[in-house]
Amino acid sequence: MIPSTIFIFGSGAQGRVIADIFICQYPAAHLFFIDENESLAGTKVNGIEVLNIAQMLSKENNPMVHVAIGNPNTRKIIVERLSATGCDFISAIHPSAEILPSATVGKNCMIGAGVIVNTNTSIADHVLINTRVLVEHDCIIEKYVSLSPGAIIGGRVHIKEGAFIGSAAVLVARITVEKGSIIGMASTVMNDIPAKVIAYGTPAKKVAEVTESYNWSRLF
């Protein structure tokens, strides 16, 4: 079904990227940004009107929403809140992306320009896959994972919920990145990575733990 109206939660950089993808994907759709910053309500960002949540719900009973938030923890919180209001979710898939027929992509995913998702790979809901990422065959990418531009994910890799893979990182075949871990930019991951750690280098090694106070904004 081709949507007539799409609401993009978040009018920052991620939201603007998503909006441009939707303009390519669904050129006839009417787009709105949703932002909790009340000072933005009624303004326009890149020519797209900004609403608050109440205004969105007054327009649609079951709005079609994309949550354009980079921080995976915040993305999860927003998704759960919007789900409780009856929102449904839609993925933004750039027309230049190549998703092979046996691969699957869930709801509220971003698949950026030039992405390749290869045979029998499973992409769960709420996953962010940025520009020119390669995800090879038989991978499992769980909910709320973020893959940054140019990352290369080898065959049969398993990336668990909320993990973040930095730009140009390479994950060799058959390894697992556990829940909530961060792989640094341009790192080469040659072995399994435990949960909630920061790993950098070639080969990637643990350098710190991801604590509750970790400043995710430095990654976006």
Automatic annotation (TrEMBL):
One of its GO terms (molecular function) is transferase activity. Belongs to the transferase hexapeptide repeat family. Keywords: Repeat, Transferase. Signal peptide: none annotated. PROSITE patterns: HEXAPEP_TRANSFERASES (PS00101). This is Acetyltransferase. The record marks 138 as: Increases basicity of active site His. The active site is at residue 137. InterPro entries: AcTrfase_PglD-like, Hexapep_transf_CS, PglD_N, Trans_hexapeptide_repeat, Trimer_LpxA-like_sf. It comes from Taibaiella lutea.
